[in-house]
Amino acid sequence: MKPIEMNPRIMPSELSAHPAPALFSRPAWTGIVVCAVLLALLPIFNLSFAADHPLHISSFTVALIGKFMCYAMAALALDLVWGYTGILSLGHGVFFALGGYAHGMYLMRAIGTDGVYQSHLPDFMVFLDWKAYPWYWSFTDNFWYAMALVVLVPGALAFVFGYFAFRSRIKGVYFSIITQAMTFAFMLLFFRNDTGFGGNNGFTDFKRILGFTITEPTTKAALFMVTLAALLGALILCRWIVTSKLGRVLQAVRDSESRLMFIGYNPLWFKLFVWTLSAVLCGIAGALYVPQVGIINPSEMSAANSIEMVIWTAVGGRGTLIGPIIGAFSVNGLKSWFTGAFPDLWLYALGLLFILVTLFMPQGILGLAKKLRRNKEAA
After folding, report:
1. What is the DSSP letter of 209?
2. What is the pTM assigned to this prediction?
3. Domain of residue 137, residue span
4. How far apart are CA 315 and CA 324, in angstroms?
5. Is residue 18 part of a domain?
6. What letter does residue 294 receive in the DSSP assignment?
Protein backbone atom coordinates (compact mmCIF):
# COMPACT_ATOMS: atom_id res chain seq x y z
CA MET A 1 0.00 0.00 0.00
CA LYS A 2 1.29 3.42 -0.90
CA PRO A 3 2.07 5.40 2.28
CA ILE A 4 0.13 8.57 2.97
CA GLU A 5 2.28 11.62 2.30
CA MET A 6 1.71 14.42 4.76
CA ASN A 7 1.13 17.91 3.44
CA PRO A 8 3.59 20.14 5.31
CA ARG A 9 1.04 22.93 5.33
CA ILE A 10 -1.16 20.98 7.72
CA MET A 11 1.37 19.23 9.94
CA PRO A 12 0.50 19.31 13.66
CA SER A 13 3.38 21.68 14.30
CA GLU A 14 1.91 24.11 11.82
CA LEU A 15 -1.50 24.01 13.51
CA SER A 16 -0.10 24.47 17.00
CA ALA A 17 -0.11 27.85 18.65
CA HIS A 18 2.56 30.30 17.53
CA PRO A 19 2.67 34.07 17.16
CA ALA A 20 -0.22 35.12 14.95
CA PRO A 21 0.42 37.49 12.05
CA ALA A 22 -0.87 41.03 12.16
CA LEU A 23 -4.48 41.50 11.12
CA PHE A 24 -3.46 43.76 8.23
CA SER A 25 -0.22 45.23 6.98
CA ARG A 26 0.30 48.96 7.38
CA PRO A 27 -0.48 49.69 3.69
CA ALA A 28 -3.65 47.59 3.96
CA TRP A 29 -4.77 49.45 7.09
CA THR A 30 -4.08 52.74 5.32
CA GLY A 31 -6.15 51.69 2.32
CA ILE A 32 -9.03 50.48 4.50
CA VAL A 33 -9.10 53.71 6.53
CA VAL A 34 -8.94 55.90 3.42
CA CYS A 35 -11.76 53.98 1.71
CA ALA A 36 -13.88 54.05 4.88
CA VAL A 37 -13.42 57.83 5.24
CA LEU A 38 -14.29 58.43 1.59
CA LEU A 39 -17.43 56.31 1.90
CA ALA A 40 -18.42 58.05 5.15
CA LEU A 41 -18.20 61.42 3.40
CA LEU A 42 -20.91 60.48 0.88
CA PRO A 43 -23.94 60.87 3.20
CA ILE A 44 -22.29 63.88 4.85
CA PHE A 45 -21.99 65.63 1.49
CA ASN A 46 -25.57 64.62 0.72
CA LEU A 47 -26.82 66.37 3.87
CA SER A 48 -24.42 69.32 3.88
CA PHE A 49 -24.71 70.68 0.35
CA ALA A 50 -27.66 71.80 -1.74
CA ALA A 51 -28.66 69.80 -4.81
CA ASP A 52 -27.08 72.32 -7.18
CA HIS A 53 -23.74 72.38 -5.33
CA PRO A 54 -20.84 70.61 -7.10
CA LEU A 55 -20.01 68.63 -3.93
CA HIS A 56 -23.56 67.40 -3.44
CA ILE A 57 -24.00 63.62 -3.51
CA SER A 58 -27.48 62.54 -4.55
CA SER A 59 -29.68 60.41 -2.32
CA PHE A 60 -29.79 57.86 -5.14
CA THR A 61 -26.00 57.50 -5.04
CA VAL A 62 -25.99 57.14 -1.26
CA ALA A 63 -28.62 54.38 -1.43
CA LEU A 64 -26.80 52.68 -4.31
CA ILE A 65 -23.46 52.58 -2.50
CA GLY A 66 -25.25 51.41 0.65
CA LYS A 67 -26.67 48.52 -1.36
CA PHE A 68 -23.21 47.71 -2.74
CA MET A 69 -21.84 47.55 0.81
CA CYS A 70 -24.52 45.00 1.72
CA TYR A 71 -23.53 42.95 -1.31
CA ALA A 72 -19.86 43.28 -0.31
CA MET A 73 -20.64 41.92 3.15
CA ALA A 74 -22.42 38.92 1.58
CA ALA A 75 -19.42 38.30 -0.72
CA LEU A 76 -17.09 38.53 2.28
CA ALA A 77 -19.19 35.92 4.10
CA LEU A 78 -19.05 33.62 1.08
CA ASP A 79 -15.28 34.02 0.80
CA LEU A 80 -14.91 32.81 4.37
CA VAL A 81 -16.39 29.41 3.46
CA TRP A 82 -15.29 29.15 -0.17
CA GLY A 83 -11.94 30.90 -0.31
CA TYR A 84 -10.62 29.73 3.06
CA THR A 85 -12.48 26.47 3.73
CA GLY A 86 -13.09 25.21 0.20
CA ILE A 87 -16.87 24.96 0.59
CA LEU A 88 -18.53 26.32 -2.55
CA SER A 89 -22.06 27.40 -1.69
CA LEU A 90 -24.63 28.19 -4.37
CA GLY A 91 -27.27 28.93 -1.77
CA HIS A 92 -26.08 31.94 0.22
CA GLY A 93 -28.88 33.98 -1.31
CA VAL A 94 -31.35 32.24 1.00
CA PHE A 95 -29.49 33.41 4.12
CA PHE A 96 -29.33 36.94 2.73
CA ALA A 97 -33.06 36.90 2.03
CA LEU A 98 -34.03 35.37 5.39
CA GLY A 99 -32.20 38.16 7.20
CA GLY A 100 -34.03 40.64 5.00
CA TYR A 101 -37.41 39.06 5.68
CA ALA A 102 -36.78 39.03 9.45
CA HIS A 103 -36.09 42.77 9.39
CA GLY A 104 -38.90 43.31 6.89
CA MET A 105 -41.42 41.82 9.33
CA TYR A 106 -40.55 44.54 11.84
CA LEU A 107 -40.72 47.23 9.15
CA MET A 108 -44.15 46.01 8.06
CA ARG A 109 -45.41 46.07 11.65
CA ALA A 110 -44.00 49.61 12.02
CA ILE A 111 -46.33 50.83 9.23
CA GLY A 112 -49.19 50.58 11.72
CA THR A 113 -52.47 51.84 10.29
CA ASP A 114 -50.82 53.99 7.61
CA GLY A 115 -51.40 51.40 4.91
CA VAL A 116 -53.96 51.56 2.12
CA TYR A 117 -56.56 49.66 4.15
CA GLN A 118 -55.73 51.49 7.42
CA SER A 119 -55.58 48.18 9.26
CA HIS A 120 -53.16 46.95 11.89
CA LEU A 121 -52.43 44.12 9.44
CA PRO A 122 -50.19 44.66 6.39
CA ASP A 123 -52.08 45.46 3.19
CA PHE A 124 -51.29 42.09 1.59
CA MET A 125 -52.83 40.26 4.56
CA VAL A 126 -55.99 42.39 4.40
CA PHE A 127 -56.22 41.76 0.65
CA LEU A 128 -55.94 38.00 1.24
CA ASP A 129 -58.60 38.21 3.99
CA TRP A 130 -56.30 37.33 6.86
CA LYS A 131 -57.91 38.09 10.24
CA ALA A 132 -54.81 38.02 12.43
CA TYR A 133 -51.05 37.63 12.27
CA PRO A 134 -49.76 34.04 12.10
CA TRP A 135 -47.90 32.82 15.20
CA TYR A 136 -44.44 33.32 13.70
CA TRP A 137 -45.14 37.06 13.41
CA SER A 138 -45.47 37.28 17.21
CA PHE A 139 -43.28 39.95 18.87
CA THR A 140 -41.92 41.14 15.52
CA ASP A 141 -43.14 44.64 16.35
CA ASN A 142 -40.18 44.75 18.75
CA PHE A 143 -37.05 45.93 16.93
CA TRP A 144 -34.58 43.97 19.05
CA TYR A 145 -36.57 40.76 18.75
CA ALA A 146 -36.55 41.21 14.98
CA MET A 147 -32.77 41.77 15.07
CA ALA A 148 -32.42 38.54 17.05
CA LEU A 149 -34.35 36.77 14.29
CA VAL A 150 -31.98 38.27 11.71
CA VAL A 151 -29.17 36.35 13.40
CA LEU A 152 -30.98 33.25 14.66
CA VAL A 153 -33.05 32.27 11.61
CA PRO A 154 -30.22 32.09 9.03
CA GLY A 155 -27.88 30.71 11.70
CA ALA A 156 -30.28 27.94 12.76
CA LEU A 157 -31.00 26.93 9.17
CA ALA A 158 -27.29 26.86 8.34
CA PHE A 159 -26.45 24.87 11.48
CA VAL A 160 -29.09 22.18 10.87
CA PHE A 161 -28.42 21.95 7.15
CA GLY A 162 -24.66 21.99 7.62
CA TYR A 163 -24.67 19.43 10.42
CA PHE A 164 -26.39 16.76 8.35
CA ALA A 165 -24.47 17.62 5.17
CA PHE A 166 -21.02 17.70 6.78
CA ARG A 167 -21.70 14.68 8.99
CA SER A 168 -22.58 12.76 5.82
CA ARG A 169 -19.27 13.91 4.27
CA ILE A 170 -21.07 15.63 1.40
CA LYS A 171 -18.69 18.03 -0.29
CA GLY A 172 -17.53 19.35 -3.61
CA VAL A 173 -20.01 19.69 -6.44
CA TYR A 174 -22.60 17.60 -4.58
CA PHE A 175 -22.69 20.07 -1.71
CA SER A 176 -22.99 22.98 -4.16
CA ILE A 177 -25.95 21.32 -5.87
CA ILE A 178 -27.89 20.67 -2.66
CA THR A 179 -27.33 24.25 -1.48
CA GLN A 180 -28.80 25.45 -4.75
CA ALA A 181 -31.73 23.05 -4.33
CA MET A 182 -32.30 24.41 -0.81
CA THR A 183 -32.41 27.96 -2.16
CA PHE A 184 -34.87 27.01 -4.88
CA ALA A 185 -37.13 25.23 -2.38
CA PHE A 186 -37.24 28.27 -0.10
CA MET A 187 -37.94 30.56 -3.04
CA LEU A 188 -40.94 28.44 -4.05
CA LEU A 189 -42.16 28.40 -0.45
CA PHE A 190 -42.00 32.18 -0.09
CA PHE A 191 -43.74 32.71 -3.43
CA ARG A 192 -46.88 31.15 -1.91
CA ASN A 193 -49.48 33.61 -0.63
CA ASP A 194 -50.52 31.36 2.25
CA THR A 195 -47.14 31.52 3.98
CA GLY A 196 -47.77 35.04 5.27
CA PHE A 197 -44.74 36.65 3.63
CA GLY A 198 -46.41 38.64 0.89
CA GLY A 199 -46.11 36.07 -1.89
CA ASN A 200 -44.66 37.31 -5.15
CA ASN A 201 -44.62 40.97 -4.05
CA GLY A 202 -42.96 40.37 -0.70
CA PHE A 203 -42.63 43.33 1.69
CA THR A 204 -42.49 46.95 0.55
CA ASP A 205 -43.80 50.47 1.20
CA PHE A 206 -41.98 50.77 4.52
CA LYS A 207 -42.71 53.91 6.54
CA ARG A 208 -40.62 54.00 9.71
CA ILE A 209 -37.71 52.41 11.53
CA LEU A 210 -37.33 52.97 15.28
CA GLY A 211 -39.82 55.83 14.95
CA PHE A 212 -37.86 57.67 12.26
CA THR A 213 -39.28 58.22 8.79
CA ILE A 214 -37.40 55.82 6.58
CA THR A 215 -37.34 58.12 3.53
CA GLU A 216 -35.76 61.04 5.40
CA PRO A 217 -32.19 61.85 4.23
CA THR A 218 -30.94 61.74 7.82
CA THR A 219 -32.39 58.25 8.30
CA LYS A 220 -30.83 57.06 5.06
CA ALA A 221 -27.50 58.56 6.14
CA ALA A 222 -27.72 56.71 9.47
CA LEU A 223 -28.49 53.42 7.70
CA PHE A 224 -25.52 54.02 5.41
CA MET A 225 -23.19 54.59 8.36
CA VAL A 226 -24.46 51.50 10.17
CA THR A 227 -23.89 49.43 7.03
CA LEU A 228 -20.37 50.80 6.65
CA ALA A 229 -19.61 49.98 10.30
CA ALA A 230 -21.04 46.47 9.87
CA LEU A 231 -18.92 45.86 6.76
CA LEU A 232 -15.74 47.01 8.52
CA GLY A 233 -16.60 44.93 11.59
CA ALA A 234 -17.23 41.84 9.46
CA LEU A 235 -13.94 42.36 7.61
CA ILE A 236 -11.95 42.64 10.85
CA LEU A 237 -13.74 39.63 12.36
CA CYS A 238 -13.10 37.46 9.29
CA ARG A 239 -9.47 38.58 9.10
CA TRP A 240 -8.98 37.76 12.78
CA ILE A 241 -10.42 34.28 12.21
CA VAL A 242 -8.29 33.44 9.16
CA THR A 243 -5.06 34.62 10.83
CA SER A 244 -5.72 32.57 13.98
CA LYS A 245 -5.10 28.87 14.63
CA LEU A 246 -8.73 28.30 13.66
CA GLY A 247 -8.02 29.88 10.30
CA ARG A 248 -5.09 27.56 9.71
CA VAL A 249 -7.32 24.58 10.45
CA LEU A 250 -9.94 25.91 8.02
CA GLN A 251 -7.33 26.25 5.30
CA ALA A 252 -6.17 22.72 6.05
CA VAL A 253 -9.76 21.56 5.51
CA ARG A 254 -9.63 23.28 2.14
CA ASP A 255 -6.24 21.87 1.13
CA SER A 256 -6.60 18.27 2.32
CA GLU A 257 -9.45 17.32 4.63
CA SER A 258 -8.51 13.63 4.73
CA ARG A 259 -4.97 14.40 5.88
CA LEU A 260 -6.31 16.73 8.54
CA MET A 261 -8.43 13.87 9.88
CA PHE A 262 -5.37 11.61 9.78
CA ILE A 263 -3.51 13.86 12.24
CA GLY A 264 -6.41 13.83 14.68
CA TYR A 265 -8.70 16.76 13.81
CA ASN A 266 -12.45 16.37 13.29
CA PRO A 267 -13.36 18.77 10.43
CA LEU A 268 -17.11 18.59 11.17
CA TRP A 269 -17.25 21.23 13.89
CA PHE A 270 -14.78 23.56 12.21
CA LYS A 271 -16.77 23.48 8.98
CA LEU A 272 -20.05 23.82 10.84
CA PHE A 273 -18.79 26.87 12.77
CA VAL A 274 -17.56 28.76 9.72
CA TRP A 275 -20.61 27.77 7.67
CA THR A 276 -23.00 29.04 10.37
CA LEU A 277 -21.02 32.25 10.90
CA SER A 278 -21.04 32.90 7.16
CA ALA A 279 -24.83 32.48 7.07
CA VAL A 280 -25.26 34.90 10.00
CA LEU A 281 -23.12 37.53 8.26
CA CYS A 282 -25.21 37.09 5.12
CA GLY A 283 -28.40 37.50 7.17
CA ILE A 284 -27.11 40.75 8.69
CA ALA A 285 -26.23 42.00 5.21
CA GLY A 286 -29.77 41.21 4.05
CA ALA A 287 -31.26 43.01 7.06
CA LEU A 288 -29.26 46.15 6.24
CA TYR A 289 -30.19 45.86 2.56
CA VAL A 290 -33.97 45.94 3.03
CA PRO A 291 -34.53 49.42 4.53
CA GLN A 292 -32.12 51.01 2.05
CA VAL A 293 -33.62 49.40 -1.04
CA GLY A 294 -37.21 49.49 0.24
CA ILE A 295 -38.30 46.00 -0.75
CA ILE A 296 -37.67 42.31 -0.11
CA ASN A 297 -39.31 39.55 -2.13
CA PRO A 298 -38.63 35.89 -3.03
CA SER A 299 -36.57 36.83 -6.07
CA GLU A 300 -33.70 37.53 -3.64
CA MET A 301 -33.62 33.77 -3.06
CA SER A 302 -33.22 32.92 -6.73
CA ALA A 303 -30.34 30.69 -7.74
CA ALA A 304 -29.07 33.47 -10.00
CA ASN A 305 -28.50 35.75 -7.00
CA SER A 306 -26.44 33.12 -5.21
CA ILE A 307 -24.40 32.52 -8.35
CA GLU A 308 -23.79 36.26 -8.65
CA MET A 309 -22.28 36.20 -5.14
CA VAL A 310 -19.86 33.54 -6.36
CA ILE A 311 -18.96 35.73 -9.33
CA TRP A 312 -18.31 38.77 -7.09
CA THR A 313 -15.97 36.67 -4.99
CA ALA A 314 -14.17 35.16 -7.97
CA VAL A 315 -13.79 38.48 -9.79
CA GLY A 316 -12.33 40.22 -6.74
CA GLY A 317 -10.13 37.31 -5.72
CA ARG A 318 -11.27 34.53 -3.42
CA GLY A 319 -9.25 33.69 -0.36
CA THR A 320 -8.29 37.33 0.20
CA LEU A 321 -11.30 38.87 2.05
CA ILE A 322 -10.68 42.32 0.57
CA GLY A 323 -10.93 40.91 -2.96
CA PRO A 324 -14.62 39.93 -2.69
CA ILE A 325 -15.44 43.43 -1.45
CA ILE A 326 -13.70 44.88 -4.50
CA GLY A 327 -15.49 42.34 -6.69
CA ALA A 328 -18.92 43.18 -5.28
CA PHE A 329 -18.42 46.91 -5.89
CA SER A 330 -16.90 46.36 -9.36
CA VAL A 331 -19.46 43.89 -10.71
CA ASN A 332 -22.47 45.74 -9.31
CA GLY A 333 -21.15 49.07 -10.51
CA LEU A 334 -20.78 47.54 -13.98
CA LYS A 335 -24.27 46.07 -13.65
CA SER A 336 -25.79 49.45 -12.79
CA TRP A 337 -24.28 51.00 -15.90
CA PHE A 338 -24.83 48.00 -18.20
CA THR A 339 -28.49 47.46 -17.31
CA GLY A 340 -29.13 51.10 -18.11
CA ALA A 341 -27.28 51.11 -21.43
CA PHE A 342 -27.90 47.52 -22.62
CA PRO A 343 -30.56 45.98 -20.33
CA ASP A 344 -31.10 42.85 -22.42
CA LEU A 345 -27.42 41.94 -22.58
CA TRP A 346 -26.38 42.01 -18.93
CA LEU A 347 -26.66 38.27 -18.28
CA TYR A 348 -24.52 37.55 -21.34
CA ALA A 349 -21.96 40.10 -20.16
CA LEU A 350 -21.95 38.57 -16.67
CA GLY A 351 -21.37 35.08 -18.05
CA LEU A 352 -18.59 36.35 -20.31
CA LEU A 353 -17.00 38.17 -17.37
CA PHE A 354 -16.94 34.99 -15.29
CA ILE A 355 -15.40 32.98 -18.14
CA LEU A 356 -12.70 35.59 -18.76
CA VAL A 357 -11.84 35.81 -15.07
CA THR A 358 -11.65 32.02 -14.77
CA LEU A 359 -9.39 31.70 -17.82
CA PHE A 360 -7.16 34.76 -17.53
CA MET A 361 -7.46 36.00 -13.93
CA PRO A 362 -7.92 32.93 -11.71
CA GLN A 363 -6.81 34.97 -8.69
CA GLY A 364 -9.19 37.81 -9.52
CA ILE A 365 -8.56 41.55 -9.57
CA LEU A 366 -6.51 41.49 -6.38
CA GLY A 367 -4.37 38.62 -7.61
CA LEU A 368 -3.74 40.41 -10.90
CA ALA A 369 -2.72 43.57 -9.06
CA LYS A 370 -0.25 41.59 -6.91
CA LYS A 371 1.18 39.89 -10.00
CA LEU A 372 1.70 43.18 -11.81
CA ARG A 373 3.39 44.64 -8.73
CA ARG A 374 5.76 41.66 -8.48
CA ASN A 375 6.60 41.94 -12.16
CA LYS A 376 7.31 45.65 -11.74
CA GLU A 377 9.58 45.00 -8.76
CA ALA A 378 11.42 42.27 -10.65
CA ALA A 379 11.93 44.44 -13.74
Report:
1. E
2. 0.92
3. 58-302
4. 7
5. no
6. T
